[in-house]
From TrEMBL:
<protein>
    <submittedName>
        <fullName>ABC transporter permease</fullName>
    </submittedName>
</protein>
<dbReference type="Pfam" id="PF02687">
    <property type="entry name" value="FtsX"/>
</dbReference>
<feature type="transmembrane region" description="Helical">
    <location>
        <begin position="364"/>
        <end position="387"/>
    </location>
</feature>
<feature type="domain" description="ABC3 transporter permease C-terminal">
    <location>
        <begin position="312"/>
        <end position="429"/>
    </location>
</feature>
<keyword id="KW-0472">Membrane</keyword>
<dbReference type="Pfam" id="PF12704">
    <property type="entry name" value="MacB_PCD"/>
</dbReference>
<keyword id="KW-1003">Cell membrane</keyword>
<dbReference type="InterPro" id="IPR050250">
    <property type="entry name" value="Macrolide_Exporter_MacB"/>
</dbReference>
<keyword id="KW-0812">Transmembrane</keyword>
<feature type="transmembrane region" description="Helical">
    <location>
        <begin position="309"/>
        <end position="331"/>
    </location>
</feature>
<feature type="transmembrane region" description="Helical">
    <location>
        <begin position="399"/>
        <end position="422"/>
    </location>
</feature>
<feature type="domain" description="MacB-like periplasmic core">
    <location>
        <begin position="20"/>
        <end position="217"/>
    </location>
</feature>
<keyword id="KW-1133">Transmembrane helix</keyword>
<feature type="transmembrane region" description="Helical">
    <location>
        <begin position="21"/>
        <end position="41"/>
    </location>
</feature>
<dbReference type="InterPro" id="IPR025857">
    <property type="entry name" value="MacB_PCD"/>
</dbReference>
<dbReference type="InterPro" id="IPR003838">
    <property type="entry name" value="ABC3_permease_C"/>
</dbReference>
Length: 436
């Protein structure tokens, strides 16, 4: 019966082309608007590291006080003094510090112009904590951190530019006039949003090219190329004065495997801030935070408000299209009341009438899904009109979006057809036979 009702549905599409075209267009445009905006929303609101997001935390310590902090919230990063204290305490199984630096890559033989590279100074645990995949080699060790080694990990795109994609582990790379040994080549890895650095980026920046040893960057007095936030008098002139200032520019991350470890680390942060208060460095009560990845993304409001608003507007438009579809289906079904009466008189049950007309609505939804898919492809290609380029390029028409487009189109149309089908199933055969 399924195949039979499907054939009836296809015939019905040709019976009244104008009415069918209106319904298909209503479903197609509604689905396309919803799927286009959803493709953007999905890209910017996803969990960038789902298997570990509940175990990765970023500590915050208020080093500015209630008169200068962010409406009672600690700064989004920490300064050098607090960062070093967290690392020395080593209260977490894994921990890393990171900040953006600007490095110039000098190609071998000085044959080409230097390349500007997106770079991060990080600690050795960075790679295991954030599950950075490697094409060749790996990260450096904790001993290399302590030795302030001239080791670097480069991205696969930079490896392609400099070495043609070959295994470059062990080779020397000149960065800003200093030689570094390549210990690893990371595969393409750029979690979106870039949860680990929302202090200096909006979460959707290009893939980093180079990772260098954090302590080595400090030794070379590499100032942050990302955001740098200070409060009060900025009287420092030397690198050491800058390190001892209240400027925040370093993002700490820790890995905690259980709620007990989270509670313990939170107590450690509170006790640390209390010690700083008693030592006279802080003149306010301890004010600390410990947020996991999802909480951090929510606090930083990573999802652009325009993506939420456009999704709501698109869904509202889709709802209006469905309301119109209900009216069109009702008109289409009730025009065949005499046909329904004859079928009922010949023994068709209401359930069979339901099945026939819901299947017919499903064929309308399928046709609307085809149109919606074509319009969604156009919409995805043009989302740059509404969104920033680095966000717009995240919207893609992948197989999952194709399947969702058809599923939404068919399901929504069948749902919209329940009331018209109910009216059709309750046609009184006697009245229709008498009037005929």
């Amino acid at each position: 019966m399924f195949a039979y009702y499907f054939q009836l549905g296809l015939r019905s599409l040709r019976r009244n082309p104008a009415l069918t075209a209106l319904m298909v267009m209503a479903i197609g445009f509604g689905v396309a608007a919803s799927m286009t905006t959803y493709s953007v929303f999905r890209a910017v609101s996803g969990n960038p590291i789902p298997d570990k997001s509940a175990r990765l935390f970023t500590p915050q310590i208020d080093a500015w006080g209630p008169q200068q902090n962010l409406k009672g919230e600690p700064a989004e990063a920490v300064g050098y003094t607090d960062a070093m204290a967290l690392m020395r305490a080593h209260e977490a199984k894994r921990q890393t510090l990171l900040y953006q630096v600007q490095l110039s890559v000098i190609p071998e033989g000085n044959r080409d112009m230097p390349l500007n590279a997106i770079s991060y100074a990080v600690s050795s645990d960075f790679f295991s904590m954030f599950e950075v995949p490697f094409r060749y080699g790996g990260g450096w060790s904790a001993q290399d951190d302590d030795a302030r080694a001239s080791d670097v990990v480069i991205g696969s795109e930079l490896d392609r530019k400099l070495f043609g994609g070959a295994n470059s582990v062990g080779r020397t790379l000149n960065l800003g006039g200093h030689d570094y040994r390549i210990v690893g080549v990371a595969s393409h890895w750029n979690p979106r949003p870039r949860f680990y650095d929302l202090f200096s980026t909006n979460g959707f920046a290009e893939e980093p090219d180079i990772y260098i040893v954090f302590n080595r960057a400090l030794d070379l007095e590499m100032r942050p190329s990302g955001r740098n936030s200070c409060r009060g008098s900025l009287s420092f002139t030397t690198w050491q004065e800058y390190l001892q200032s209240n400027c925040v520019w370093i993002t700490p991350w820790v890995e905690l495997d259980s709620s007990a470890e989270v509670d313990s680390y939170r107590r450690f942060l509170t006790n640390y801030a209390d010690v700083q208060q008693r030592a006279g460095r802080f003149a306010w009560a301890p004010n600390v935070r410990l947020r996991d990845v999802v909480q951090w993304l929510d606090y930083e409001k990573v999802v652009p408000p325009e993506s939420r608003m456009s999704l709501v507007v698109a869904l509202g438009f889709f709802l209006i299209c469905l309301v119109n579809t209900i009216g069109l289906l009702l008109a289409k079904f009730m025009r065949r009341a005499s046909e329904i009466g004859v079928r009922r008189a010949l023994g068709a049950t209401r359930g069979e009438i339901y099945a026939q007309y819901l299947m017919e609505a499903g064929t309308v939804g399928l046709a609307g899904g085809v149109l919606g898919l074509l319009l969604t492809a156009v919409g995805v290609a043009g989302v740059g009109v509404l969104f920033q380029p680095e966000i717009a390029k995240l919207a893609t028409l992948d197989p999952s979006l194709v399947a969702l487009t058809f599923a939404v189109a068919i399901a929504a149309t069948v749902l919209a057809a329940f009331y018209p089908a109910w009216r059709a199933a309750h046609v009184q055969p006697a009245w229709q036979l008498k009037s005929s």
